[in-house]
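Recall from the previous lesson that a structure prediction takes nothing but the amino acid sequence as input. Here we apply that procedure to COP9 signalosome complex subunit 3 from Drosophila persimilis. The sequence below is the only information supplied.
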Amino acid sequence: MGSALENFVNQVRTMSASGSFRELADDLPESVSLLARNWSILDNVLETLDVQQHTLGVLYVLLAKLHSAATANPEPVQIIQLMRDFVHRNNVEQLRFAICAFYETCHLFTDYLVQKNLSILGIKIMARAVDQIRQIDSQLTPIHADLCLLSLKAKNFNLVLTYLDGDITDISTAAAECKTQQQQQSQHTDANNDAKYFLLFYYYGGMIYTAVKDYDRALYFFECASQPRPMAMSHIMLEAYKKFLMVSLIVEGNIAFIPKNTQVIGRFMKPMASHYHDLVNVYANSSSEELRILILKYSEAFTRDSNMGLAKQATTSLYKRNIKRLTKTFLTLSLSDVASRVQLSGAAEAERYILNMIKSGEIYASINQKDGMVLFKDDPEKYNSPDMFLNVQTNITQVLDLVKQINKMEEEIILNPMYVKKALGSQDDDLTSQHPKTYSGDPTD
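The prediction returns the following tokens.
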């Protein structure tokens, strides 16, 4: 082991023993390039360090290994085992002193697994990392997006759904707090991109909910990912907006609410998503045939955006909406008439749609197989059963809990010193505007 690496090890061991974790965390970023240059003997360095006692030192060795993975081409099994051991054995209190380095390590580890087509092996590791670093269960961290990406690539959603189903009430600001340190240390260029990973969490989450056909939840996630601050836009937002339009048609039958004060959507997103707005306009005409022709016309664009599946689901939803309209007009109708009015290929396809809709509770009807007639019925629910009462009670409890959470968040905002300072500043500006000063001469002087 070279003298420079020996100095690194001695520094880690000495400062860790004395409890100087803050100072150690400030010094270690300068060692990343040194460690990366000596990637071939980093295993020897790890043998001299204990994960529990020297968490910061081991973290930066891992970071250097992942930075040099492209050139060093390490065995994936070794990298995965090192990361698994680290997230299970590290000292969290030490880890919080270098949270940006930890986030970057997780991002690089995720990218490495995706490149090696080993995403499924990283899901539990990343879930452990999320559990370890978040301070409350409803807190969103930058590495939530990594967990979603691994799950999406592996097409394994059981674990990640437990993280997506919960409401987010807090966003980790730890990475933002070390922004100044990050800017000073040029080795770290990606770990502090909080906005990017916030958007990716909702974008990937929307894709996961789409995959499991929970379109209501997918719509919410795509809406969060496509709502930019004024005069700001990213590729993530644009792709989320395209999917938002598609899922809106599936769920609502039209475009869900978009804040009118969002200038970016009107100025940039709409022109760049013109094919999707054409689809929305044709959908509004309720003509399944016109919609099918338009999807065929723009099939290349939809396929390129990986949205052809959503386009087909939108077509299916229009067939279903048109069938629902028939239930409001007719009591009985033949299957062939249904197929003709909804523009399906024939009675067999109409029967398949109706049976699926009956099974899912979207309509209430029965089919007489002898004469091929459909009898549309009213909703049998009388809303007086014990199950319905329990359902209403559960919904009321959820609403009350939500009100408590909103009141708590409002109180925290009102008592926040930064908010108080800004609010008082606004009041001073209002008072000044009420008593304007008078000037003489040219106001530009």
